[in-house]
Amino acid sequence: MAKVELKQPVVQAIAEDIKDAASVVLVDYRGLTVAEDTALRKQLREAGVIYKVCKNTMMKRAFEGTDFAALDEHLEGPSAIAISKDDATAPARIICNFAKDAKALELKAGVVEGTLYDVNALNELAKIPSRDVLISKLLGSLQSPITNLARVLNQIAEQGGAEACEAAPAAEEAATEE
User: Fold this and answer.
1) Are 84 and 23 in contact (CB under 8 A)?
2) Residues 84-97, buried b or exposed e (16+ Cβ, 10 A)?
3) From CA 178, how far away is CA 174, in angstroms rounded?
4) Which residue of 70, 87, 91, 165 is surrounded by the most CB atoms within 10 Å?
């Protein structure tokens, strides 16, 4: 078998992983201990992120003709790739949070929803909460006024209805004057 035939399945596997991906982040993993690498892989796996260490030439071939080809210029030195198909900010968020403790871990660059981001921009993206957190905050904001209205109506009902309110006598006087 020729070397090209041996490498083709690896390139196809990477291409299959990045197909329909929302984001791809490149990482320099040099200097991580085995324990740190294992912990990082576990966090990424729990978030549904694919994490692989691949040769740069294999990634370049897999990226050809995709939005991720913009990452070619950042493929220097040992590289690992984090791929997310669902949550576009998950790889950047998890890796940035992990890099706070593991100083050896460095972001290189990433493509999120078709746009190339450098390290600083990825750090800013990492500050965005996950989609589930944003949806729960939105629902909480929408639910808050309704909950407050329900509490007020409940207090009125507990105090004997509209007749017991201070505004009710004033409204009755205005109605009798007409």
Assistant:
1) yes
2) bbebbbbbbbbbbe
3) 7
4) 91
